[in-house]
């Protein structure tokens, strides 16, 4: 058995001196890599309690109306069917702040795909047959699913996602824009986008002696437990939510979703454990989507490229169920100096599924529009687009005047340009030919805010010299266990393999969800604090540890409630090289390179994977991903992976990610910013700008499919 150095030799600093290989910044392999690669890591649908029944949901087939008749007789007559839940017989739920979870409570159908029944059977196959055998009659009302920039129902919401004000004005935009020697006025559209994580939303629920236990595919089991407690009028101590391994979410699992509520209802109704994995084709209607946006960007500048007027106005949709407003114009409040600016959002409530978070909500679509418009300005003024951005790099946050905690956008642009081989670049469009292919390069900036959420963590020193961290963090594929072990080991001054990390259960201390690129920073801060407290306790005591060891529990409620005097954001620059086939209109990315400044990178292996994943998702947003709403039937037209095209390996020849060593003392004890979302930001604009450089065509509607080019 190995022993720690005596506690008094340890220091509660993050970077302990001494012979230990420093665990922070080490490219450690994920602790669960082998389990995941071999299939022994189990996901929510892979738990099968004895006596488990299977459920299959029934989606509404009209876009707006009421259920007038529900005939479940045929379904119940099928051998092996246990129950069919409807609004007439399902358990009554209390209401919560999330109306999308008020499932099977009333006859109203607010959008196509809304769940109206749930079949429960002995097998998955029978459950599916039973769902098909449910006969529904509706009274329909006329529906409207078409977002237009002049929709009569558009209104200015009070707040947009992220709790930002919908409208901000500084100076006199109209006068400054009218007086500007150079102006760009362009409108960009982003279609509805679907999260489509590899693992669909799934839950397995069982009640035992009044205690509800669910395995749920979620980015944050703490909130799932809170919402289940509210819905079923239980104490949180009567519920356990386990999200041990999660196969991606991209925001769609950031809040509780229908599968967990329906599985718990069905388990209560039938007295059996119930498993429910939402079919892929049903996901777009019930787990959120990135709402489409129509964004008008106007920039006025001097001949020197210095921006004097900037307006970013976004129009989007929400559902009639609840208001969610994609905050696409918010990044324009942070990016560039302009004494006169207007950033505004309007929204219309349509008969559509409720939109929600999708990787970099706000920033991803907003920076597509803004960074495309900046490129148009660069072309107009014949100023290099890297240089133009550097000329407009503000000293303080334009919107608030607050100093940046750190802002290395200009360094990212310069260093990225160097690595990419940006210069020498002929700025003229459509002059590089390689046979039938037109070649071009483009650049765009990226940004993402630093968020942080209150978290509690427990650090335990065992008598045998081992350590254990307990915190309800979630690993959605990011390597959370590994990086938390690194943070704990650094704080404790012990080798990383001496630290066990327990995450993924609501029975652990409550934590921030894995979202807003804030997981590692939020959990890590609490872990660091608990480890520091544990070390102090170890130092204060004499003699060997008691058999049960010693535990310290700390939370970051106070620290995270404080508003920082600094504007805190990660920044980056994305460079793309594309080829456009002049015969077919096909656009392919030849190279994609992201250069980031995101504080200290805690594990380069897992961080690189996050950046590259984001860049790849941005490539999909640029070229292949896009849904639409069918005006006649009101449903999404691209619901499965055959119709909604995410990039495949052949679409991604070279994607590189680099970062600066950024020191920022105004963040958290690790000095880290979030990295989960910034990779997607700016990528679509960089590719679109490269397409213009290649072809001379300014395409302003995503995705850039061949038909748009021809
Ligand atoms: Mo992310 S869209 O905050 O899960």
Structural features, described:
The protein has 710 residues and is of the alpha+beta class. Among the domains are: 145 residues, Aldehyde Oxidoreductase, domain 4; 144 residues, Aldehyde Oxidoreductase, domain 3, CATH 3.90.1170.50; 198 residues, Aldehyde Oxidoreductase, domain 4, CATH 3.30.365. It contains 17 helices and 26 strands. The chain has a seven-stranded mixed beta sheet. The termini are far apart. It binds dioxothiomolybdenum(VI) ion. Dioxothiomolybdenum(VI) ion binds next to loops. The site of dioxothiomolybdenum(VI) ion (MOS) has 12 residues, from loops.
Classify the secondary structure makeup into a structural class: alpha+beta
Which sheet architecture does the biggest sheet show? Answer: 7 strands, mixed
**Global Rg:** 26 Å
The small-molecule ligands in this entry are: dioxothiomolybdenum(VI) ion
Name the shape in a single word: globular
The CATH architecture term of the domain at 396-450 and 568-710 is 2-Layer Sandwich
Low-confidence stretches: 1-19
Tally of helical segments: 17
Beta-strand segment tally? 26
Do you know the CATH topology of the domain at 396-450 and 568-710?
Answer: Aldehyde Oxidoreductase, domain 4
């Amino acid at each position: 058995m190995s022993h720690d150095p005596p506690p008094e030799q340890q220091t509660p600093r993050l970077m302990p001196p001494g012979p230990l290989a420093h665990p922070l910044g080490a490219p450690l392999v994920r602790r669960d890599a082998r389990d995941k690669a071999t299939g022994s890591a189990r996901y929510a649908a892979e738990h099968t309690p004895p006596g488990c029944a299977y459920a299959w949901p029934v989606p509404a087939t009209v876009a707006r109306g009421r259920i007038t008749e529900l005939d479940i007789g045929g379904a119940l007559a099928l051998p092996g069917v246990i129950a069919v839940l409807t609004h007439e017989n399902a358990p009554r739920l209390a209401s919560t702040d999330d109306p999308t979870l008020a499932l099977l409570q009333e006859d109203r159908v607010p959008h196509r795909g809304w769940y109206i029944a749930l079949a429960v059977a002995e097998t998955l196959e029978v459950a599916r047959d039973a769902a098909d055998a449910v006969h529904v009659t509706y009274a329909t009302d006329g529906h409207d699913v078409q977002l237009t920039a002049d929709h009569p129902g558009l209104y200015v919401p009070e707040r947009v996602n992220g709790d930002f004000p919908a409208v901000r004005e500084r100076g006199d935009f109209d006068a400054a824009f009218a007086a500007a020697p150079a102006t760009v006025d362009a409108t960009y559209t982003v279609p509805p986008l679907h999260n489509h994580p590899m693992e669909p939303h799934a839950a397995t629920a069982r009640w035992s002696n009044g205690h509800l236990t669910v395995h749920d595919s979620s980015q944050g089991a703490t909130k799932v437990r809170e919402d289940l407690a509210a819905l079923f009028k239980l104490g949180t101590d009567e519920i356990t939510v386990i999200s041990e391994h999660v196969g991606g979410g991209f925001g769609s699992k950031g809040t509780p979703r229908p599968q967990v509520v329906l599985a718990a209802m069905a388990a209560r109704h039938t007295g059996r454990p119930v498993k429910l994995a939402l079919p892929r084709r049903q996901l777009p209607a019930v787990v959120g989507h990135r709402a489409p946006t129509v964004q008008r960007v106007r920039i006025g500048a001097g001949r020197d490229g210095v921006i004097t007027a900037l307006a970013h106005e976004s129009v989007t949709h929400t559902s009639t169920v609840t208001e969610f407003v994609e905050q696409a114009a918010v990044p324009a409040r942070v990016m560039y100096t302009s004494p006169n600016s207007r950033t505004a959002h309007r929204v219309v409530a349509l008969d559509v599924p409720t939109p929600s978070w999708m990787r970099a909500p706000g920033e991803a679509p907003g920076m597509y529009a803004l960074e495309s418009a900046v490129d148009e300005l660069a072309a107009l003024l014949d100023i290099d687009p890297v240089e133009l951005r550097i000329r407009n790099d503000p000293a303080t946050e334009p919107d608030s005047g607050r100093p940046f905690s750190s802002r290395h956008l200009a360094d990212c642009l310069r260093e990225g340009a160097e690595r990419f081989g940006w210069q020498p670049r002929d700025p003229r469009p459509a002059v590089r030919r390689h046979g039938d292919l037109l070649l071009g390069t483009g650049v765009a900036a990226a940004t993402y805010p630093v968020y942080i959420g209150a978290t509690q963590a427990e650090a335990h020193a065992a008598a045998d010299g081992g350590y254990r961290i307990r915190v309800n963090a979630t690993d959605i594929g990011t390597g959370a266990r590994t990086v938390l072990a690194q943070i704990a080991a650094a704080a404790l001054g012990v080798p990383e393999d001496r630290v066990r990390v327990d995450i993924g259960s609501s029975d652990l201390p409550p934590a921030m969800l894995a979202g807003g690129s804030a997981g590692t920073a939020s959990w890590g801060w609490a872990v660091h604090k608990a480890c520091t407290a544990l070390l102090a306790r170890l130092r204060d005591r004499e003699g060997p540890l008691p058999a049960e060891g010693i535990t310290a529990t700390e939370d970051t409620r106070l620290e995270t409630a404080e508003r920082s005097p600094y504007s805190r954001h990660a920044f980056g620059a994305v460079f793309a090289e594309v080829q456009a086939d002049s015969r077919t209109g096909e656009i392919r990315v030849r190279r994609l390179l992201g250069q980031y400044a995101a504080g200290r990178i805690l594990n380069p292996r897992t961080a690189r994977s996050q950046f590259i994943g984001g860049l790849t998702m941005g490539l999909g947003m640029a070229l292949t991903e896009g849904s639409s709403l069918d005006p006649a039937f009101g449903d999404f037209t691209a619901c499965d992976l055959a119709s909604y095209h995410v990039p495949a390996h052949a679409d991604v020849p070279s994607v590189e990610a680099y970062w600066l060593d950024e020191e920022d003392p105004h963040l958290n004890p690790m000095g880290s910013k979030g990295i989960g979302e910034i990779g997607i930001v700016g990528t679509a604009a960089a590719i679109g700008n490269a397409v213009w450089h290649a072809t001379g065509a300014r395409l302003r509607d995503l995705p850039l499919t061949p038909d748009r080019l021809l």
